[in-house]
Specification:
The protein is 30% helix and 8% strand. It is an alpha+beta fold. The structure holds heme C. Residues 1-130 form the Cytochrome c domain.
Amino acid sequence: MRGQQLFVQTGCESCHKQTLKTGYSPVAALANTEFHPYTDLLLHNMGPGLDDGYTEGSAGGAEWRTPPLWGLGLAQNSQGGQVYLMHDGRARSIREAIRMHGGEAASIQKRFEEMPAASQADVIAFLKSL
Ligand code: HEC
């Protein structure tokens, strides 16, 4: 729970939105329903370190969609004992994935790096609980 608070306070939640709400759906169970995907479903410029030099439609090489973090805690077992995070799987741990955030996320990544190690561990424990 401490990790979840820090996740919000640090600003991770500005992109990895905890709660979204569906709109109209003819299926009642899907209509106007809150869910917790930990994404805003939007593209963000993530800086030169994540620029693969390829454009897709109108998206530049450094622009990536915020991935949902729900289920992140299951990734290790579902990916054969090792996690492969970020768009091309280059990050081999949650810690490494956070370190690779640049561009629009640079100031928030810096805030995370400046937190005490115990607080960083709390955030990662929270992410593994999703
Ligand atoms: C500016 C928006 C933004 C902010 C702020 C942000 N992220 Fe992200 N995050 C992204 C995007 C976009 C990606 C995907 C980048 C890629 O695919 O190369 C990502 C990827 C990740 C991943 C890897 C997920 C996967 O399935 O590959 C983790 C873990 C993560 N972010 C955690 C965090 C944490 C923790 C914070 C706060 C310290 C944070 N993010 C702040 C946009 C953001």
